[in-house]
Amino acid sequence: MGRVRGLRPSWCRLSRAGLGLGLLGLGLAPWTAWAGPGEGEGVDDAEAPSTATTTATATLRGRVIEAGGSRAPIVAAVVMVVDAPPEVRPGKPAKTPLDPEAITWMLRAETDEQGRFELPEVPVGKVRVVIVAGGYARLEQWAEVEAIPAGSRDQLRLYLERDAEGSADGYRTEVVSAREQVDPPSYTLDGQSARHYAGAGDDPMLAALSMPGVARSPGGLAVLSFRGAAPTWTGYYLDGHPVPRGYHVLPIAAVLMPALVDSIEFDPGNYGPGYGGYGGGMVRMHSKAGGRDGVHGQAHVDLFDLGAAISAPVGRGALAFGLRRSHVDSVLGLATRTIEASTGSDAGLSSLLFPAFWDYLGRFDLPLEGGWEGRRTLSLRALGAGDSLRSHAGSGDVGGDGFEFESSFHRFDLEYRAEGSKWRALISPSLRLDSAHLEQSTDSRREATVFSSRMLYAAQLHRVLELELGSDLVYERYHRFSKIVPMWAQQLSPEQIDSLTTFESSRGEDLSLGMWVAPTLRLGDWTLAPALRMSIYYTGKTGFFRPEPRLDVRGLVHPKVELRARIGLYSQGLVVRTNNASSYVVPSQVLLGNGILDIPSSMFQLFDPRVEGEVLDGAAVYTKNIHASLSVQAELPWQLRLRATAYWREGLPDELEVNRELEDATIYNYDISISRRRGMGMELMLSRPMGEVFDGWIGYTLSSSRLESAETGWRPATFDQRHNLVVLLSASLPRGFRLGMRFRLVSGNPDEPVVGTQQIRDLSSGLLYTEPLRGALGDEYRPLFHQLDLRLDKRWIRRRTAISAYLDVQNVYNNLYPEAYVYSLDWSQREALFGLPIYPSLGVQVDF
Fold this sequence. Notes:
With 848 residues, the protein is mainly beta. The chain folds into 2 domains: 3-160, Immunoglobulin-like, CATH 2.60.40; 187-289 and 296-748 and 783-847, Beta Barrel (Maltoporin, Chain A). The protein has 5 helices and 48 strands. The strands form 9 sheets. It has a 22-stranded antiparallel barrel. It has a 5-stranded antiparallel beta sheet with strand order 1-4-3-6-7, with no helix packed on it. Strands 9-12-13-10-11 form a 5-stranded mixed beta sheet, with no helix packed on it. The protein is globular. The model is unreliable at 1-53 and 165-180 (pLDDT under 50).
């Protein structure tokens, strides 16, 4: 119940001087504590006039909540009630200035944790209600006090808007000191505030592309390459369990809809002992739990997709659910049908790929009562994502000209968390169902069942010692089926096609098991965290045992300067031979007009929808990679934070023995050398912590990523980008506007230039064709990349809803960057094929 101060058995009469001083203090310093009647000066302690004994009074109850979609209760808001003229209209804003000469009494209270207040013995009739709360605009509203039965619901529901110094977007960020966490991540993004960053397309996972240590991805695709390592070396976990990918197959959106993203943790390079099997880095996404403060929802639509999410209390627990689907395929399909209906001829769009994606997540969180001392929570989650790419050319039958690719996963989690004053525990099993289907020249399908689990127990053994024990398991069983029809057989009869059709079927299993022990010593301002992870990997019918020691040391060298050093051994699976069914949607070369489009490896290797196959001839190995980093973080004036990180990554060489069975059943043995890989560099980040008025960062990465070859020596890796500068800023403006910008200046990727040609005769046709002769990767680099993106948000706040609209314009000054080159048919000349031009994106969102 709200605290009520200065309330007399009947309403009080104030001296005009005392009331005037109180109201003057309210206007000049509303954030200060007020002295209620009877507490401060100017309260007339004489008995009220005899008329007071005949004035009817009532108890005034109300609730103060935040306006807009969140409708969060506002705690410790100061509520003042004074008398008002009888001609005012209840429920309307009180626009006339508060006149101390006309006020005869005043009552005051504060809201409780639910935003509620109660004022007894308020005179019945018209009143002025004044509410002041830190971070919110002051509210003055007319109301009418009526006598109501005891136990009735709140008479008043009052909505406060964030003030000009608060957030125009209604988000708040809770910052946890890294020194208080056992294994703090290198970087953390708030899932809701990151949606407003320019160039992110309202997706916090796309905002991750602007973080230090992340290479620029080609063509605007969402690909995370940490510190020059291959993007396939990055692990993606959602709520503690792995997901097949962090982005959809057409990488323009993450697999978790933005409305349900709570936070994203990034570790480019070193990460804690609770995870393994990835040599590049780790991304951990955390979904947003439902709230118990009422039913809330969100709906959005933009140029790519539409979706909705809802959160509501259910019993003692809370439910959250969200669903999203793209509509690019529907727009293209409608355009095709409209053109064909109006012209009576082919629209010419049948050869295009019609992409579509969807994703969903639902979770139920239930706090448990009774039993052990401490807090216990049971969580149930169901989530999934899917993609499809279709071309309507040809019949779509196996071996025809059509193309169809579908991929999806569904995951079901159970999580039990318990936490006491000196211990915490986690048990979480999960079941995932994966499916992939490619229909092109072959019909390939892959179905997989993936079981994963995570268990953890940590206890405070001593005031300076904490011990964590844990294990994680990922076990996959798959079945792959292929139906192969020669492309030339489409002109034959169905009986002949059936006679030429061949079938392939295979089954297999993969395993990743890790167990770790991680003591943490807290010695004053310093924390020493050695850890040992013991990992067992099984793939391609071959097992690997990998001990992976890790060390994390951090502490204060100055009250505002923190030092952190990390080193560890990490494994990365590498498959040399497999029977994947690749779609080659983005081939390395394709005819374009009167020339040949030469697509760089950084594009066609990363965007290749395919059906995974099994490892052939045991040609797989888990390589060893050493990561070391040293960072210094300083707290500067004006809430600025500067972090400098130097890192080193060394991929150790290895030898892989392959046993290949030939057609005559003989075994052919040969060795494959795994070359040394090396990355080193520095990251600088000047940031302002995520706040409500202004936030962002200036990030610079100096990077060198190299591969060693016996033939050419050290050569750059595919994502060797020497310099990468990102300036990202976002500021709240008056009247619900928010303005953001992102500027990027990045070195180009290494290239394999065409240095000559050779004539090759086709043995079947006898014709000669020209084949390019290429130099080594890194003999030439793409030009310097630079781009400016701007974003403008507008938010309209109503009592129960909030409407937001945004305009996100990428490549504002239309810098045309050569993502690929078009060569003449004889490879003697080339022209640039430019990437993303100026591109505006629009979106609308409604919160309730």
